[in-house]
Amino acid sequence: MTTMERPVTCTGVADELLAYHLDLVEDDARQAIDEHLLGCQECLRAFLQLKHQARGASELRPGSAARQRLRDEVARTFRPPALARVRAWLARPVPLYQSLAVASAAVLLAVATPGVLRRAASQPPPVAGPRVDTARVTPAAASLY
Amino acid sequence: MPPPDEPDETLYARTRRGDMRAFDTLYARYEGRLFAFLVSLLGHRADAEDAFHETFMRTLSSREVVFDRASFRTWLYRIGRNVALNQLRSRRQQSAAQDEPAASTLAAPVPAPPPDQALEQRETAAALQEALARLPPHLCEVFHLRSSGLSYEEMAEVLEIPTGTLKSRMNLMVTRLKHEMMRR
CB-based contact (8 Å) between B110 and chain A? Predict the structure, then answer.
């Protein structure tokens, strides 16, 4: 935007540094300033100082309490309904190692279950031994013998 | 966390769906520059914090925000500017109602940088801040909008002025700012 003759002198560059920082100079002037800054430490230092000042002037921040207040209100206002939250939980991305662990467990279960069931089915039922009468002999019953 | 290069408009849509990580990214992108812009308009940090809060909530809640007309950034600054101007208007009305002379809040000094910075750094940063504080508000806001990375078209949209007017205002701002910095 700002037009200038090729600013090869330090005075010319110093005069244009602010416009240069705000990207308001024409392409040819920008190129000339670029070249000058590469070769002139004084002007480069002045430019970096200006840049630092501009950052300080533009980088204020709200306090942490103000940030939290805003965050809470955003969370409250845009909180999705319960059903959508459940759906989002179900559709959440699961890490690969977790998926592999679950899949391995399912395969092992599928392979092992029929064998276990078959073995259980083929085992003969336990044979009953001779019955032992462990009932105590009452005095009345003893009198019968 | 969302990818760092995710467009503002996508983060905006995700925030509206309740994704707080998207909000955090959006907030981190704008907390510094938008806040500095509001401080430059309002002069007081506490007022700027209120305006910042209202700006974000209005931008996120508004149904008027349509991105085919302007970017998220343009909407944010435009709404922020309107919020700040409304605050100034009500402040003027209040002081008029109290029959007090209206304070020139726009020229109030910008708060000092954090105390952990070196004294020398604070002094150099203060040079530009003081020069900015001496500029009229319509030039000061141009500086902050440009420092936020807005293009001419975006700035013209935020300020609701033609691009030609904006360009001459930019030239004037640079001239006045240089003058003020040399005066120091």
Answer: yes
